Amino acid sequence: MQTLEQLRAGALAGATWLQLRCGLTEFPREIFELADTLEILELSGNALDSLPDDLPRLHKLRIIFCSDNPFTELPEVLGRCPALTMVGFKACRITTVPGAALSERLRWLILTDNRIAELPREIGRCTDMQKLMLSGNRLHALPPELANCSKLELLRIASNRLAALPDWLLAMPRLTWLACAGNPFNEKQAAAPSPVRSIHWHELQVLHKLGEGASGVIHQATLDGTTVAVKIFKGAMTSDGSPEHEMAASIGAGRHPNLIPVLGTVPDHPEQRPALVMPLMDPRLRNLAGPPSFVTCTRDVYADGQQFSTGTLLGIARGIASAAAHLHARGIMHGDLYAHNILNCGEGNAVLGDLGGASMFEPGSTLAAALQRLEVRAFGCLLEELLERCEDELPKVRTLALDCMHLSPDARPAFANIVARLAY
């Protein structure tokens, strides 16, 4: 992170990425000295409530983050920035999104955890939009013009006030990763499933931190002489939704060899935070890939030179297809079926984790079938990525991937059919 003093002294000349977090109440005019080079501007965590009208002078600016600032309106000037493709205003106080603020070039828009009750119809002009994050707002409906955004792949609308999912949304050709828990249409399905063991805090000996994600921190601990993992939720709204819905889905998932089971919940955390106790995973398991980058937007980032043998690819594919079929049979859509949420030992055993984007529904319903077809496309994307890095051609798997990614959702196979097609 840079400082305002460095900026004013000219020490940041030529910078392409600028991050200032220093209690700013006004946009520093010195930023315009970087107009010929600046591409990414991070001003999150300040006290800004407006942006200057001449912001388009930053003619190379591609990405701007202004989260955790007291904006009440998404600034219209954003729509005039010539190169802007990614906008992040999470956890502000935004109630109004003017149509003029939405550039037709936008690929990624983050408005999580605000006070937005309505989106402008102009969002339909954002035909390059691939990622739209709206969880934790007050939306009663989605504008039908959003259907024009045919490239949209990831949509986060959890914890809003939606009475239903419109038919046109579920028919969008590339919609793949959807989080929609915590809306009136699925309140009953989001209720906590069959109870698991209550594990009191004094029963755990918490040792050290293992990792941290958007929704919580995972610690290693011991329980009854056994090493376990404890996920302590932060309690804040994430782009995927709320911790309560992640916990409900994690418990409701039950037991499956390709899922991380829940051993119990902690009812009496010292800071009253929700927490789950899970088995400690085999240390040989590693994330299959890294999450999407600013460049890839919706696609995961694999290690350079990463390759999969035929056996490893089929092992991963069969395990994840089986896990997804199991979840859907229990009325759970994972919502974030990605390689970066899959643990793999390099020999084909695969474990699907992170139910932060999960949504619950009534199994066997019309909605259930529509949601499964979205998840099937996510599985097709995973197969495509694995095939790109496989030593063999595998024509049957390639055909399956294409079928899963069919632009007509009704033409995609169900997970039961996918499991059968992979059984060779």
Describe this structure in words.
There is one protein chain. By secondary structure, this protein is of the alpha/beta class. The protein has helices spanning 4-8, 167-170, 243-252, 310-329, 366-387, 395-404, 415-421, and strands spanning 17-19, 40-42, 63-65, 86-88, 108-110, 131-133, 154-156, 177-179, 197-198, 204-212, 216-223, 226-233, 264-265, 275-279, 286-287, 332-333, 342-344, 350-352, 359-360. The protein is built from seven helices and 19 strands. The strands form four sheets. Strands 1-2-3-4-5-6-7-8 form an eight-stranded parallel β-sheet. A six-stranded mixed β-sheet has the order 9-13-14-12-11-10, covered by helices on one side. Among the domains are: 197-279, Phosphorylase Kinase, domain 1; 286-421, Orthogonal Bundle (Transferase(Phosphotransferase), domain 1), CATH 1.10.510.10. The mean pLDDT is 93.
What portion of residues belong to β-strands?
Answer: 15-25%
CATH architecture of the domain at 286-421: Orthogonal Bundle
The oligomeric state is: single chain
Number of strands: 19
Gyration radius from CA atoms, angstroms: 22 Å
User: Main β-sheet: number of strands, strand sense, barrel status?
Assistant: 8 strands, parallel
Average pLDDT figure: 93
Helix fraction, binned, reads 10-25%
| Secondary structure category | alpha/beta
Order the strands across the largest sheet as they lie in space.
Answer: 1-2-3-4-5-6-7-8
C-alpha geometry? globular
Q: What is the assigned CATH homologous superfamily of the domain at 286-421? A: Transferase(Phosphotransferase) domain 1
CATH class of the domain at 286-421: Mainly Alpha
CATH topology of the domain at 286-421: Transferase(Phosphotransferase), domain 1
Give the end-to-end Cα distance, rounded to a whole number of Å. 52 Å
Order of helices and strands: HEEEEEEEHEEEEEHEEEHEEEEHHH
Low-confidence stretches: none
Annotation field: number of helices: 7
